[in-house]
Amino acid sequence: METGTEVLRRLRLAAPIIQGPFGGGLSAVDLVVAVSESGGLGSFGMHHLEPRGMRDITTRIRARTARPFALNLWIPHQGSNDPQLSESQWNAALDLLRPWFEELRVAIPDRPARFSPRYEEQVETLLELKPAVFSFVFGVPDPQILDRCRSAGIATLGAATTPDEAKLLSDAGVDMIVATGMEAGGHRVSFLREPEDCLTGTLALVPAVVDTVRVPVIAAGGIVEGRGVEAALALGASAAQIGTAFLACEESAAPPLHRQMLFSEAARRTSLTRAFTGRLARGIHNEFIEKFRGKESLLPPYPVQGWLTGKLREAAVNAGRADVLSLWSGQGAPLLKHRKARELFVDLATGTRR
Ligand SMILES: Cc1cc2nc3c(=O)[nH]c(=O)nc-3n(C[C@H](O)[C@H](O)[C@H](O)COP(=O)(O)O)c2cc1C
What we know:
The protein is α/β, with parallel strands linked by helices. The protein has 14 helices and eleven strands. It binds flavin mononucleotide.
């Protein structure tokens, strides 16, 4: 059987740089193509897409690059595949957000039949699409899925926020592990304990995971330039996964307001919040986060809150309301320099020279 290091070699990367996937519509074909064509691994976050959308995006990527790329899904976690809410819980969830629906003049939505696509259908579609890499967060796929990936030549890349999670992934036969430090932008992808209890930084987490598993470890969280990549490799990582710095590039699907905020003074303060989705995630601190401080236990479970705030998103973007929008960002934002993915890639690759 191929080792994880051989799997990484099979990807034929010019530099061990992975562009982290972004869920919820922030990944972009342009970004995946720019990174994969530069010799890194582009990734597309698909957890919010139905099979038809997954196929469409993959066709569009393949029309523009023959290089490897990753497709990313979220493993169902804590009932997230189909949360059951009573009528009174649904009404309470609406009441919490009513002031913003009124202020932004967005109609209160009807309750949907489901709040997110079916994971089982997504994973079947992914197997049919056969990307070079299946990356995933929030758990470990079933053994049959991992077997089918292996038979199809799809490399697997799971995420860990603690050495225990990394061990579980590696014992299950996952090919490579992303060790995600608490500096990272977006969701805290812990699955064994509450994310609030899994806040180790990249500098301490990466070597601890390297010492725990034998598969290649990919460092993520707070890496935005060549120096960070060099540090990650010095800690024993085989590659680095970069999110925020690629999100800030014009090829990403982040709205211009979000990208502008990443380069602003405001990005010096990020915080971890459940306010936008019901799950803990890091973003630029704003008034929306502030308003939910101390009230997070009242929020409906993931993905209900994410579905509801998603209905406010377009109106918030159109109104230029950075105080209401989720401005996902890692702690590395104050170091951002590049607005073009190919230039960022060249900078990151300088960290791999030694
Ligand atoms: C807006 C945003 C969305 C993200 N969505 C996903 C996702 O759907 N799946 C995933 O595996 N990682 C996701 N991540 C994590 C990134 O892929 C990457 O691991 C992380 O951003 C690295 O930390 P950094 O932001 O400090 O570079 C997301 C990150 C951000 C900023």
